[in-house]
Amino acid sequence: MKSFYIKDIKISCCNLDSAVDELLSVLKLSHSEYVCVTDAGNIVTAFRNSPALKSAINESFMSLPDGRPLSVFAGLKGIKDVGRVAGPDFMIRVFERTSGTGISHFFLGDTEIILEKMISSISAEYDLKIAGSYSPPFGIWNSDTDNEILGKIINADPDLIWVSLGGGKQEVWMKKIHGKLDKGVMIGVGAAFRFYLGEIKRAPVVFQKLGFEWLFRLVQQPGKMFKRYAVTLPFFMIYFFQEIFKKNNENTVH
């Protein structure tokens, strides 16, 4: 899949349906891959102070354009067929497409309670093959923790591994771990489990289309989101306009 770049951070040229098509096609390969869901915050963090995150995004199988500003950027640069691919929307569309197919799913992250609710709700709504789930310990992980998680995934033998460890951490971790798997695709979806359960409310569709879902989430979680948005949004707007006014040959899609 072709990609474009904002501050040397890869964004895949896709929309919701083409991203799901690409994900399902890679399941036929005899090796593991991983998918990042990349928003403005991750672009700013990766460019400013996290070479590890930049490397993880740029080496991913896909880096999905999570955020209306990314699809607007693509449109202004003449890059076609790029639409917003938010983590919760992508996850639900994959559930719909894999229901009844025998493609297996593993859920990693969050708490045991959230995972239990998640699997119960999914099982009631879709005919999905659930290979397993695991709520890992919070805090800093060492190699023993990684090996324990890896062992659980290998024993479950899933096709798709949904990873909810938080933006930034999950991308770097997937890059480190995926090469130790013989099969399967890891997808980092951040808070998508809680969005799916309704524990974090999605913005109304009109907010999403206008690119103001961040404002809706800020109102819901001011303590958690204020610092993040206060730092990332001004920088992203600067990067957005710097990249927009580059000559077209400096934004080659490849």
Task: Note down, in words, how this protein is organized.
- It is built from twelve helices and eight strands.
- It has a single domain (3-11, 27-250), classed as 3-Layer(aba) Sandwich (Rossmann fold).
- Helix 6 (112-125) links the parallel strand 5 and strand 6 (129-134).
- It has 254 residues and is of the alpha/beta class.
- Helix 2 (40-49) packs across helix 3 (51-58).
- The mean pLDDT is 89.
Task: Give me some keywords for this one.
254 residues; alpha/beta; Rossmann fold; 6-stranded parallel beta sheet; two-stranded antiparallel sheet; 8 strands
Question: Summary?
Answer:
With 254 residues, this protein is an alpha/beta fold.
The arrangement of helices and strands along the chain is: EEHEHHEHHEHEHEHEHHHH
Number of beta strands = 8
CATH class division: Alpha Beta
Estimated radius of gyration: 18 Å
What is the number of domains? 1
Measured by DSSP, the beta-strand proportion falls in 15-25%
Fill in the CATH topology: Rossmann fold
Shape verdict = globular
The residue-averaged pLDDT reads 89
Helix proportion: 40-55%
Q: Please, how many helices?
A: 12
Distance between the termini: 8 Å
Secondary-structure-derived class: alpha/beta
Give the SSE layout:
Blueprint lengths: L2 E4 L2 E4 L3 H11 L6 E6 L1 H10 L1 H8 L3 E4 L2 H9 L10 H12 L5 E6 L2 H14 L3 E6 L8 H14 L3 E5 L4 H10 L6 E4 L3 H6 L7 H6 L2 H8 L1 H23 L10
Parallel strand pairs: 3-4, 3-8, 5-6, 5-7, 7-8
Antiparallel strand pairs: 1-2
